[in-house]
């Protein structure tokens, strides 16, 4: 896929001003179809030619980000990344349209049904004939290159994301732990991330303590 800039504009947000840059495959550059796949860079400050840029590579999660599903921590991760980037003054979120770790919304909901019957997130994806994680990171690499970013400090707990970006040519100078939003509905999901997918357990104990404290206050 040859990504090109399709549209961009400055936007006010709850976290302050950001610049939204929309990317399309070059083959779809002139398409008027509303179903064309589009990815985004959500940029704060001047990052062209800059190294060690604070960055979150984030995959779309409609269920969490739109209707507030509590089954995962995706919405909280996105909000926390934008907040941290705003506080630093420069950085970006690379937002990829890779719902359900790359299997799409419909299949993600089918996986949810299997989880309701007792499967965990990895088992559900495998039962549907997919990999545990089907996302690709060449898309993020292309966006970071277009933005002129020399290297990144990556907000993630996922070692596969670090490895995938490095394999795609991105210089990941540092991985920064990004545990947020644990609750009674997603605690098992986060545990599977740590146990089966190797997500680094940098802060889960502190996160659980914080979540418990918030629950007591509530």
Map the helices and strands.
Elements (H helix, E strand, L loop, with lengths): L2 E11 L2 E10 L12 E7 L8 E7 L2 H4 L8 H15 L2 E6 L2 H4 L2 H12 L4 H7 L10 H9 L5 E4 L3 H9 L4 E5 L10 H10 L7 H14 L1
Parallel strand pairs: 4-5, 4-6, 6-7
Antiparallel strand pairs: 1-2, 2-3, 3-5
Helix pairs in contact: 4-5
Summarize the structure.
The protein has 218 residues and is of the alpha/beta class.
Textual characterization of the structure:
With 218 residues, the protein is an alpha/beta fold. The longest helix is centred in the middle third of the chain and has 15 residues. The protein is globular and about 50 Å long. The chain has a seven-stranded mixed sheet, sandwiched between helices. Helix 4 packs across helix 5. It has one domain: GTP cyclohydrolase II (Rossmann fold), CATH 3.40.50.10990.
Biggest pleated sheet: 7 strands, mixed
**Mean of residue pLDDT values:** 85
Rg, Cα atoms, Å: 17 Å
SS summary, helix count: 9
**Secondary-structure element series:** EEEEHHEHHHHEHEHH
Strands, count: 7
